[in-house]
Amino acid sequence: MGIISRGFGGRRRESIPGLPPGQYLTHDFPVLSAGPTPRIPLDRWSFTITTETGAKSSWNWTEFTALTSEDVTVDIHCVTKWSKLGSTWRGVSLDTLLAEVDTAADYTMVHSFGGYTTNVPLEDLLDSKAWIAYKFDGEDLEPEHGGPARMLIPHLYFWKSAKWVNGLTLMNEDEPGFWEAAGYHMYGDPWLEQRYQGD
Amino acid sequence: MNPLDGNAMAGDLRELFTVDVTAARYTCAGCGHADAVATLILWGQEMGQVGRCPHCTDVVVRVVQAPDRVFLDLRGSVRLELPLAGS
Ligand SMILES: [Zn+2]
């Protein structure tokens, strides 16, 4: 009888609704980083959406946090197999940020301070499926978890929820981001276990 | 002369992948810095190994291990120089 033994005190998944295949439950919030943690002073923070024609929309921290924010409770699933259910965040919906943006593109590349990128289809950012989050569990988002602000796209594996986010580029064609170029799946649906290319 | 198919590279590739890659020298695509792979700064061990240039912090190599495959992404490296056994 198989007992999941890898890390973070996981429990068997059969008894837990909301847990995608191959995942185990954690109550911690493990930190994964592909590079040094950038420290971004709020007066130097900005978020910029660049369309496929090069048109830019930009928000500084004051403008961004003045936008309507939402409190959301979501399950998050990391491709390294931990899942965290019922995590609570506050952020600005991508619907709000993209409302004024004129685009015919179908794909986006998310950009972060420090150079990280990840690709997400535009439709996965719309209809209350994605936020730029700046509070976790009622507190300001810590740098280790992507603060000042990170992407939150809970229906995809968590590498798509880029930390230290600073921009979004709209693209006519899909292109791989940082991990996708190195073998991870272009889309990353945890319910289909789309971990690696070809899955 | 007709071009050869990829099988013709098999001998060379076998040579390449049986050497100790940490003894290989990389040249960073970002800044041109060259040193042994063993001197790269390693990050991100959970999703895959990310080797960053100690000089400019750009990513030089990424290695992702799937259950049945290994991906080696070298776009951050302009070349990899591998010592051959016995030389
Ligand atoms: Zn370099």
Structural summary, described in words:
The complex is a heterodimer of chains A (199) and B (87). Chain A is mostly beta strands and 199 residues long. Chain A has one domain: Oxidoreductase, molybdopterin-binding domain (Sulfite Oxidase, Chain A, domain 2, Alpha-Beta Complex), CATH 3.90.420. Helix content of chain A is 6%, strand content 31%. In chain A, strand 6 (107-112) and strand 7 (117-121) form a beta hairpin. The two termini of chain A are 26 Å apart. In chain A, 37% of the residues are buried. By secondary structure, chain B is mainly beta. Chain B has one helix at residues 10-18; strands at 25-28, 34-36, 41-43, 49-52, 59-65, 70-73, 77-81. The relative contact order of chain B is 0.21. The complex binds zinc ion (ZN).
Percentage beta strand of chain A: 25-35%
Strand order of the largest sheet of chain B: 3-4-5-6
Distance between the termini of chain A: 26 Å
The H-level CATH homologous superfamily of chain A, spelled out, is Oxidoreductase, molybdopterin-binding domain
Task: Work out the radius of gyration of chain B.
Answer: 15 Å
- Averaged pLDDT of chain A: 93
| Class by SSE composition of chain A | mainly beta
**Shape, principal axes of CA atoms of chain B:** globular
How many H/I helical runs of chain B? 1
The major β-sheet of chain A equals: 6 strands, mixed
Structural class of chain B: mainly beta
Q: Provide the CATH top-level class of chain A.
A: Alpha Beta
Order of helices and strands of chain B: HEEEEEEE
Region (Disordered) (chain A): 1-21
Domain Oxidoreductase molybdopterin-binding (chain A): 35-179
Protein name (chain A): Molybdopterin-binding protein
Organism (chain A): Paractinoplanes durhamensis
